[in-house]
Design goal:
RutC-like_sf; 26% strand; YjgF/YER057c/UK114; 60s Ribosomal Protein L30, Chain: A; 137 residues
């Protein structure tokens, strides 16, 4: 059977540090939009101005990740309250899970989105945390 498929509505977006988004550290877009859904690449705790990992521990890194996610979402007139699914990657799961959760609870004014948290053995640039988001209108 030879069914014709509709043209893709997928769009990819790359932001500049002047938008408050750190430069990419690999071959990927900062976000992909398909219809009303926006898929954000995992954000690292890097300073957009320098591209360097922020100083401090899990709390400082979590806050930088939040700021980076918020900057990407702002490019679509969205906020973290538009998040549908969040995936969190923690390098030291047992040590940082509770401290991360304390900060994470402050990220949302409305109901919390669905979430998965995964312990990993390493993250790019030596980060302690990385977070990706799927958001919708």
């Amino acid at each position: 059977m030879n069914e014709s498929r509709p043209a893709s509505r997928k769009e990819t977006f790359v932001f500049a540090p002047s938008d408050g988004v750190p430069p990419q550290v690999g071959p990927f877009a900062h976000a992909t939009r398909l219809g009303d859904l926006v898929f954000l690449t995992g954000q690292m705790p890097t300073d957009p101005a320098t591209g360097e990992l922020v100083a401090g521990g899990i709390v400082e890194q979590a806050e930088q990740v939040r700021a980076n996610l918020a900057a990407v979402l702002a490019g679509f007139d969205l906020t973290l309250d538009d998040a549908l699914q969040v995936r969190v990657y923690l390098r030291h799961f047992d040590e940082h899970f509770e401290a991360f959760n304390e900060r994470y609870r402050t990220w949302f004014a409305g109901p919390l989105p669905a979430r998965t948290t995964i312990g990993v053995t390493g993250l790019a640039v030596g980060a302690l945390v990385e977070v990706d988001v799927t958001a919708g209108r």
